[in-house]
Specification:
By secondary structure, the protein is of the alpha/beta class. Helix content is 25%, strand content 16%. It is globular. The two termini are 22 Å apart.
């Protein structure tokens, strides 16, 4: 959508992958060997360690913590890079995106640490109402859908696809693990139109980042 030729990398097969080329490999090892060959890298390390379910429903389970090794590999590449994750993840919050910013029927807040570049922060618009779905046996209407889990009581596959702006898969798990393409379109388009800069900001403090409020970096252009 932003004019890039996209190579996707995942440790598991992804038969519904919608990019140009898919490589089945350990993403960190692939990046260590090849990241320097690309114009831009976007990484989404597994987020289960930081997500709300792990702190509630799935409490007690352990998950790999891959943000720090991902960051180390991307910094070593010398290329502009983005690390995306959920609220509560230990990454620098250079950018926060919400579905309402793009007219989507999901809220889906996601944070982005931007390495070697800057991306403008859109205005965080007020949410227009509640998330649709069943609560204690009653269906509640609302302008948003909760796209996570197996979908029980949270909307149909078609509603999830429309809410996320995704049309290349009807598999709930794949939709639930995705971020809206509008998010990466915003980032990729911004990076195509601006020169990259040296990233001399302070490294992330995981404890501070996990409890920090979203902020704009100093050199974001005004909106």
């Amino acid at each position: 959508m932003a004019g890039y030729h996209v190579t996707g990398v995942d440790i598991a097969p992804q038969p519904n992958y919608a990019g140009d080329v898919f490589v089945q490999a350990d993403a960190i090892e692939y990046a260590r060997a090849h990241a320097h060959e690309y114009d831009l890298i976007h990484a989404s390390p597994p987020c289960q360690d930081a997500c709300t379910l792990t702190k509630g429903t799935n409490q007690g389970r352990t998950y790999p913590r891959l943000i720090e090794p991902t960051r180390e590999v991307l910094l070593a590449s010398g290329r502009p890079a983005v690390i995306e994750n959920v609220p509560g993840a230990a990454l620098r919050r250079d950018l926060m995106l919400c579905g309402e910013m793009f007219g989507l029927a999901v809220i889906r807040h996601r944070y982005f640490e931007i390495l070697g570049a800057v991306v403008p922060q859109p205005e965080h618009l007020p949410h227009r109402g509640r998330v649709a779905g069943y609560r204690h046996g009653t269906w509640h209407k609302g302008p948003y859908f909760a796209v996570y889990g197996d979908g029980g009581g949270k909307g149909s596959v078609a509603q999830w696809q429309d809410a996320m702006g995704i049309d290349w898969t009807s598999v709930r798990k794949e939709i639930a693990e995705a971020i809206p393409p509008a998010y990466t379109h915003w980032i990729a388009r911004a990076l195509r139109s601006t020169a990259t800069v040296l990233d001399d900001r302070a490294p992330v403090d995981p404890l501070e980042a996990a409890g920090a409020r979203p902020h704009h970096v100093a050199d974001f252009p005004p909106q």
